[in-house]
Amino acid sequence: MPPEIDTTVAHPARRYDYWLGGKDNYPADRESGDTIADLFPTIRITAMENRRFMCRAVDYLTRQVGIRQFLDIGTGIPTSPNAHEVAQSIAPASRVVYVDNDPIVLVHARALLTSSPEGATAYLDADLRETDKILRHPDLLELLDLREPVALMLVAVLHFVKDADDPYGAVAQLVAAMPPGSYLVISHATNDHMPPATAAAVDAADNARRVPFQFRTREQFARFLDGLELLPPGIVSVSEWRADHEPQPRPSVEDTAVYGAVARI
Ligand SMILES: C[S@@+](CC[C@H](N)C(=O)[O-])C[C@H]1O[C@@H](n2cnc3c(N)ncnc32)[C@H](O)[C@@H]1O
User: Fold this and answer.
1) Considering the chain, what percentage of its residues have pLDDT values greater than 70?
2) pLDDT by residue (tens digit) across 138-162?
3) Which residues sit opposite 138 in a β-bridge?
4) What is the pLDDT of residues 66-92, one digit of tens each?
5) How far is the CA of 76 from the centre of ligand 1 (A)?
6) In 10 A of CB 138, how many CB atoms?
7) Ramachandran class of 39: left when φ > 0, alpha when ψ lies in -120 to 50, beta otherwise
8) Ligand 1: which atom is nearest the Cα of residue 105?
């Protein structure tokens, strides 16, 4: 285990892996995950529905829109199907650049480098706030043609960037670097439908464990999409985004507490 990985402190990527039923997590992650689950009992549905939203959005953009390039920031510990597996099952030549700032995701990154022979994948170890480092990275420039549309994916990651760290500025810079005809895929935790005491307790549990976290309202979420053209059905629970073929009835936004949207840049 690389020395910079502290397994005694809960970490979002490993805790999310725990909720998804993965095996790359430690007692501190499980304890933190269980604390949140005690406060918000549908958290495992949240994690699964968020992941399925990501897969449906990649499927839609590849199949219906013809997108062949993806920049997935805040990738998480690999969980099959990963974005490249979804895209390449439809268009084998699709190219995907993954970015995460977590050393443990880096340790597992090999599972993201399993591209089809026709396509390509790369993994960058970077923070989403380091927009220049990401956009000028030689591996990104080798893989993505920034004159052709790209799907910029910020799925369940921006709630780990507090307002003080200017997530709106970072998203604006990333969006500005995408060529016309690109898309933004975005999801974000919200406390809009949560009793205030629950939201405060979730906040306190995270901040006590030094995991930066911030819920955002629908209005605050919509600010990330300012100036972009929202695709139908607009801003909805991740469980409801183009989910006609998913098992019905769908979990509600009260169950998931995560908004999702896809917009044209
Ligand atoms: C909940 S997981 C989401 C994984 C995946 N996008 C999905 O939706 O299934 C959040 C991921 O964002 C990463 N992350 C958190 N803050 C980040 C930052 N500032 N820059 C890059 N990655 C970050 C975490 O390490 C974690 O892997």
Assistant:
1) 99
2) 999 999 999 999 999 999 999 999 9
3) none
4) 999 999 999 999 999 999 999 999 999
5) 5
6) 9
7) alpha
8) 27
Burial group, residue 222, by CB count within 10 angstroms (0-12, 13-18, 19+): middle
Q: How do beta strands 236-237 and 258-264 pair?
A: antiparallel
What is the CB-side half-sphere exposure of residue 56 using CA atoms within 13 A?
A: 20
pLDDT attached to residue 6? 84
Please state the atom number of ligand 1 nearest to the C-alpha of residue 76.
27
**Number of DSSP helices (H) and strands (E) in the chain, helices first:** 11, 8
The residue whose C-alpha atom lies closest to atom 12 belonging to ligand 1 is: 74
Q: Can you tell me the distance from the alpha carbon of 68 to that of 20, in angstroms, rounded to the nearest whole number?
A: 27
Residue 227 backbone zone (phi > 0: left; psi -120 to 50: alpha; other: beta): left
CB 241 within 8 A of CB 261: yes
Which residue stretches of 5-162 are H helix?
12-19, 27-39, 43-60, 83-90, 103-107, 131-135, 138-143
Ligand 1 centroid distance, CA of 104 (Å):
11
Residue 256: its H or E element: helix 253-256
Stated pTM of the model: 0.96
* Cβ contact 237:53 at 8 Å: no
**C-beta separation of 32 from 38 below 8 A:** no
Q: Which helix (H) or strand (E) holds 176?
A: helix 167-176
Q: Find the 159 Cα to ligand 1 centroid distance in Å.
A: 9
Q: What's the gap in Å between 16 CA and the centre of ligand 1?
A: 9
Block residue for tokens 């911030």: 214
209/220 Cα distance (integer angstroms):
25
Closest-CA residue, ligand 1 atom 4, reads 76
